[in-house]
Amino acid sequence: MSLIEGEFFVTILSVLDLAPVVQGGTAADTFRNTLDLARHAERWGYRRYWLAEHHNMPGIASSATSVVIGYVAAGTSTIRVGSGGIMLPNHAPLVIAEQFGTLESMYPGRIDLGLGRAPGSDQLTARALRRGLDRDGQDFPQLLEELRGFFAPGPGAKSVRAHPGEGLDIPIWLLGSSGFSARLAGELGLPFAFASHFAPDYLLPALELYRSSFRPSEALDKPYAMVGINVVAADTNEEAERLATSHQLAFLNIIRGRTGLLAPPVDSMDPLWSEHEREIVKSQLKYTVTGDADAVREGVAAIARMTQADEIIVAGQIYDHAARLRSFEILADAIGDR
């Protein structure tokens, strides 16, 4: 897929599915919709389909991320499927090596392992996950080194080995919203994905840090950066703006300290938020492109031009499944247009 907008940018599109559970729906409905979207995305030419680890959030169904990845990979044929991401400090590296070694053995050449260092949860949930509350993610490089060691070929000096996992070539990505993972990804020569779809502030400095600190590795000979954005596309600008209110409502609840299911869209947000709340939500969702095909093409092109991203991964928190499918279809058609 490519964009032509001022300059030429080769832009690969992928899908980030937050597996939304909608009001009036169930997790079972969500998983059926996830697989349906993945099958459509595969036909529309999206490169990869990622799912994210979140816990204690009733509106997100992908807490058992590896299980859902297996479900999607089993129901598709060619699209890459992976994590965007697994929160490594929540898990023993051996367990993740075994899980993704199993997935790669079942679906060879199609599995990605994106890793983050945030808890993906609140402190009480972190305790329930048996994550030490004194850990702030600073041990992430050591956990990553341990995990990569389990994938390394041959026993070497290892007394504990990952079966399956050992010797498998599973692409590892580092995900983040700050300079920590950007610098680490650069120093290790790994691909880097920035979570600008919900944490936009440090996007450009993080990309610069990643590229400037990059050292070629067996994984990559040059930097490879992915940027996360939100897209809500519809046949008219007015309908897209209306559909986007579901995501705005979800963020409004977050800043009010609430969690819940994804709500249906509303005709206007004006009576529902204060001016201050509106500014916070708009700021956090800065990298959201909303509109018809022309607006989406222009908006995504602007982000591609600004970031020089090698790939853009798209989230679309849309209440109605048919409208969500249509949004990703419009995006694929718009970016594929020459």
TrEMBL record:
InterPro entries: Bact_Lucif_Oxidored, CmoO-like, Luciferase-like_dom, Luciferase-like_sf
Gene3D superfamilies hit by this protein: Luciferase-like domain (3.20.20.30)
Pfam families: Bac_luciferase (PF00296)
Protein name: LLM class flavin-dependent oxidoreductase
Family to which the UniProt record says this protein belongs: To bacterial alkanal monooxygenase alpha and beta chains.
GO molecular function, one term: oxidoreductase activity, acting on paired donors, with incorporation or reduction of molecular oxygen
Organism: Paenibacillus antri
Database matches in NCBIfam families: oxido_grp_1
Gene Ontology CC annotations of this record: cytosol
Domain Luciferase-like: 23-302
